[in-house]
User: Fold these one by one.
Assistant:
Number 1:
Amino acid sequence: MSDPNLGYDVVILGGGSGGYACALRAVQLGLRVALIEKDKVGGTCLHRGCIPTKALLHAAEVADSTRESAQFGVLAELTGIDMSGVNAYKDGVVAKLYKGLQGMIKAAKIDYIEGTGKLVGKNTVEVDGRRITGKNLVLATGSYSKSIPGLDIDGERVISSEHALNLGEVPASAVILGGGVIGVEFASAWHSFGTDVTIIEALPRLVAAEDADCSKQVERTFRKRGITFKTGKPFESVKHTDTGVSVTIQGGEVVEAELLLVAVGRGPVTQGIGYEEQGVGMDRGFVLTDERLRTNIPGVYAVGDIVPGMQLAHRGFAQGIFVAEDIAGLDPQPIDENGIPRVTYCEPEVASVGLTEEKAKEKYGADKVKTYNYNLGGNGKSQILKTQGFVKLVGVVDGPVVGVHMVGSRVGELIGEAQLIYNWEAFPSDVAQLIHMHPTQNEALGEAHLALAGKPLHAHA
Ligand code: NAI
C-alpha cells in the first residue's frame, strides 16, 4: 500500500502518448497515479498529429484511386474534394478514439487532473493552486510546431501542421518549408487533392533522415506525380501578397503561392513550467535523461518528445511503459532507439527500422556490410497495385540483418515483420526459411531475405 502522506506513487505531467501509456501501465502494476493534462488526453498524436494526418492521407488515396480508376478498367470521375466532408470524416475518427481513450483512463482508476501543471518542487506539481505530490514524477509535456527566427506563423497564410489539418478549402497552391516527415506527408495529400505544391528543403534530399536510396525513390515518384521540390535550398524570407505569399529561397529564386506551411521540426514544450527552476538537466530545451529515462533529479523521469531522439508516438508509448515498470521495480530492458520502426505515410510510403547503409558502414566497416535491393517490380501484389519501390536489406557479413528500408504504396504495413527481424537479430537465413504468403507485398520481404541468404527466387543474387 502506498503511504498517503507521500501522495501518489506516480505523478505524470502531460497526457499525450508517453504520459497516458505510463499512467495505464502504472495502475496495472498497482501504483497510485495522477495524470495532469491541460488540454485533451491523447495529446498531439491523437488530436493534432498521427491520427488526423493519416485520415487526411487516406482521403487523398481515395481521391487518387478515383482519378486513376480507368487504369483498372473502372469508370469513375473525380468531380472535386469537399473539405468539410474530409474534415468530418477525420474528426469522426479522432472523436471515436478520444472517447475510447477517456473511457480507458476512467476505468483504470487513474486520478485525471485537468489543468496546467508546474513543477514547484522535486516531487511536487502545482495545478491551479493545488499541490500534487508523488514519490515519482514523470515529465511528458510533448512538443509544438517550431518555426525559424523571423518567420511568424500567423495561422492564415503562414501556417503550421495544426492549421493545415483544419483548412476549410483545398488551397490552389502551397509552398511547404521542410522536406522532412510532415513536409512530404502534406505535400502528398495536398497534391492528391489538387493543390500545386512546392517543397523547399535545405538539405540535399527529401526525408533526409532515411537511407539515401529511399530519398531517391520518393523523389523519383514525386517528380512523376508532379510534386515540385527544391532541395539544398534554405528558405530566406516570405512576404504577404494580395493573393497569398511570396517566398524567397537562397539564390534569390521566388515562389508564389496561396499559403506557406512551415514544417521545420517540432520543439520540446519545457519552458515556463518549472523544469529549469527546479534544476532539471536540459540541453537546448530538451530534458536530458540516462538510458533508463531518469533525469538528474532522483525520482524524476522524462518521456516522449521532450527527450532527445525521434519524436514518435510509439516511442512515447514504449518509454511510458518502461518508466512505469522501472518505478515498479520490474527492471525492464532499456529501449534500443534503432529498433523503433519509422513510417512516413506519403505516397509512396517509406518504412524503415534499424541502421541505414551509411550508418551500418560507419559502425561495422564498409567491408563487413552487405546490402540487397529487392525491386517491387518482381512482386505480384505490388504490380497489381501498380506501385513501384523496393525492399532494401542491410546486413552484416555472416551476421544479422541490421537495417530494413522499404518504399512503395502500403509498405508501412510491412514494418511489423521488419521490426521483429531487426530486434530479434535474425540472420537472412532465419527469415529465408520462413514461408511468406503469396501474393502479398509482405512476400517481397521474404524474397529479399532469400536473395541475401544466397538463394534468390524471383530475383538475382
Ligand atoms: P523533420 O525534422 O522531419 O523535418 C524538418 C525539415 O525541415 C528538415 O529536413 C530540415 O532540413 C528542414 N529545414 C529546417 N530549416 C529549414 C530552412 N530554413 N529551409 C529549408 N528547410 C529547412 O521535422 P517535421 O517534418 O517538422 O516533423 C516533426 C516531427 O514530427 C518529426 O520528429 C517527425 O518524426 C514527427 N512526425 C512523424 C510522423 C510519422 O512518423 N509518420 C509524421 C509527422 C511528424
Number 2:
Amino acid sequence: MGLALMTKRGVACYQPKRDGKLIGTLFSLYNDPAQEVLMEVSAQRLTARRGGPLRGRIKPPGDKSISHRALILGLLSIGETAIEGLLEGDDVLHTADVCRELGADVVRTGEGCWRVRGCGVGSLLAPRKTLDFGNSGTGMRLMMGVVGGHGITASFDGDASLRKRPMRRILDPLLLMGAEVLKQAEGGRCPLELKGASEPIPIEYRTPVASAQIKSAVLLAGLNSPGRTVVIEPEASRDHTERMLKYFGAGIEVESFGENGRKISLEGRPELRPAPIAVPGDPSSAAFVLVAATIVPGSDVIIESMMMNPLRTGLLTTLLEMGADVEINDRREEGGEEVADLRVRAAELRGVDVPAGRAPSMIDEYPILAVAAAFAHGQTRMRGLNELRVKESDRLEAVAAGLRAAGIEPRIIGDDLIVEGHGGDVPGGGLVATHLDHRIAMSFLCLGLASRRPVEIDDASMIATSFPTFRPQMERLGAQFA
Ligand code: S3P
C-alpha cells in the first residue's frame, strides 16, 4: 500500500511502515524540512483493459538515475547547480530531502526545475534525524557512499520493500575505507546507522556483481579521500556517476577492463564545480510505452527525447531482435547524453534468447520484456537474472507470478526466466500482486492493455516513485484504465 498526494505545500507520500498504518512524509517543494504525517488509506487497485490503438506523442519523465545523481553532486559542490527536467517522483524527492538534511539548500523553481546550493566535498552537516529513503535503493545506496566518506554519523531507513534489500554489498567496501556500522538490522539491512570515515582510505575495489549502485557508492565515498580510489567492475554498468563527476570537474579516468568490464580511477578531494544539468528522458520509463505500443494492435506512438546511453538500451536492442517496429529519429546530444525520438508501431514479435551479458544494460526492464515475450510467437529465454531477486521486490518471482495470474505459464530454471509466447492472444484476467514494486505494477497494466480479459493490479500507488504521470500520459495515448 502507498499513496502520493499533491498538496499546496508539497508532495505527501504515504508508505506502509508501522502497525499496518501508513506513515507519510510531506516533501516541501520549497526549502522546509520534510514532516511526518499519519494517515490510513487503502491500496489503490487499478485495472487495465484492451481498447483501441495507442496513438500520439509522449515525453517520458526525467531519468531517475541521473536525477538522484544531479541532486547529490549538487550537494557535493560549492555554488549553485541548476537542474532541468528532474524526475519529481517519490524516490527522487526523498533524495532531495536527504540533501537538505546534509546541509544543501534545495528549492524547486518551476516544473522539473530545481536549484541546489551545495556545501562541497568534506563539508556536510551531520543529520538531525533519520535519513528516510522511502522505496529507493539507489537513493539509499548512493547516500551511504556519501556519508561513508565523510566524518558524520547518519541513520538510514526506508519502507517495507527497502528494509528487505541487501546493503552489505555497499557496507563492505565502505568498511574497507574506514567507515563503521554502528547498528544494522539482520543481514546488513536497514534500519542501520553508519559512521563515516573523515579521512577515507583510498582503495582499489572489485565489485562482486555489475552494479552501478555499488560502483557509485565507492566513488562517492572516494571523493573525500586523500588519494586515488579505483573501482573495477566485471561488466560495465550504467556510467552516469562517472560522466557527471567528470562534468563537475573531478579527475576521473575510465578504461576498459577484461572483455566487458571497466576500471574507473578517481582522484580524491576535487573541488566540484556546479554545472547546469538537463535530465534526459528515462529509458526505463519509456520502456513501458515502447512495449505497450508494440503489443496493442494498430498503435503508432512517438516517444520524445529518450536517453540512448548504450548502457541503458538493452531492451531496445532486444525488442528490435524480436521484430519490433521502432524507428530511431533525430539522435542528438542533450545535457551530455545522447537522446533520440522513437517512433513505435505495433508489430508481431518472435521469441529470442537474451544473453546474460546484456543484463546490466536492461536490468530494470525484464518485467516489461517478460510481458513482450508473452505476446511473442515462440519461446523467450532471459538468462542470468539473479540480480532481479534483490530489486524493489524479488522480481523474478513477482514476474512469474504475474504472468501466471494472466494465464501464461513461465518457468524459472536457475537464474533464467523462460516464457512461452501466446502470439497476440494472451488470456489476461487475473489479479497481480505488485509487492510495493512500481515496475511490476506498470508492466502488468501494460499487459492488460492488450490481453483478452482485463488485468487488475493490487496497488498502483508505487508507480509514483518513478513515473508519477504514467496513468494520465498513457490515457492520453488511448490506454483504458479504471
Ligand atoms: C541504478 C542501478 C541499478 C538499477 C537501479 C538504478 C542506479 O541497480 O536497478 O534501478 O541508478 O545506479 P544495480 O546497480 O544494483 O544493478
Number 3:
Amino acid sequence: MKAGILGGTFNPVHYGHLRAAEEVREKLGFDKIIFIPSKNPPLKTKEIAEPEHRYEMSRLATSNNKFFELSDIEFRLKGKSYSVKTMEELKKSSPGTDFFFILGIDTFLDVPNWWHPERVIKLTNFVIISRPHFRFVDLKKSQYIKINKRALKELDDRKIELYTTKLTSKQDVVLLRVTELGISSTEIRELISQGKSVNYLLPAKVKSYIIANKLYKS
Ligand code: ATP
Ligand code: MG
C-alpha cells in the first residue's frame, strides 16, 4: 500500500491542493492520498479559521473522490501540530503502508524552519511538486537534497515530468511536475475580505460553507 500525505493548513482548501493530489496519485500510482489538516500550525498565525472549519471544508472538498481520505490525526494529538509527531503516529497506526509526504517546492524549502527538521526528513519518502512562482532549480538551496542542476532545469523546462533521487537522509524523493495552478489560500482570503469573487478557485461547496459561516470577512 502506497499513500501520499498532503498536509496543510487548508485555510481554505482549494483546487491547487485538489488537482495536485489527484495528479500525484495518478502519476505515481499511489493507492490513496490522505489529507491532513493541521489543527494548530506553529508557523501560521495570520487570519486562520478555526480548526473545525478548516477540517469541515476539507471534508466537503475531498468526500467525492474515492482515493482521497481525510485524517483527523492532528485533532487527536495534543499541543502544537508538528509533522514529526503526526508522521510518527501515522506510521505506528499503519505499519504496512509506504508513506510519501507531498510538499510544494515552497514548503520543502521551509522545512529547515520546522520543529526538528533533521527528524522530518528521516521519517518518510517525499514527493516535491511544482508550484507557480517557484522553480525546481530553487532546490539547489536546500541542504537536504543533493541533485545535479541539469535534472532540475529539465523539470523546469518541461523536458521531463519527474525525477527520482535520494535525500541526504537516504529517503527517496520524487520531484514531480503537476499542472501549475496559481491558486493560494492567502489570495482567496484576500479576495473574500474585499468582497470579490472566488468562483472556480475552489469547490462551490467550500465557497458556500465560507459564506454561510462568514469566514475571512476580517
Ligand atoms: P497559504 O497561502 O495560507 O500558505 P496555501 O495555498 O499555500 O495557503 P497550504 O495549506 O499552505 O496552502 O499548502 C499545503 C500544501 O499544498 C503545501 O505543501 C503547498 O506547497 C501545497 N500547495 C498549495 N497550493 C498549491 C498549488 N496551487 N499548487 C501546488 N501545490 C500547492
Ligand atoms: Mg502555504
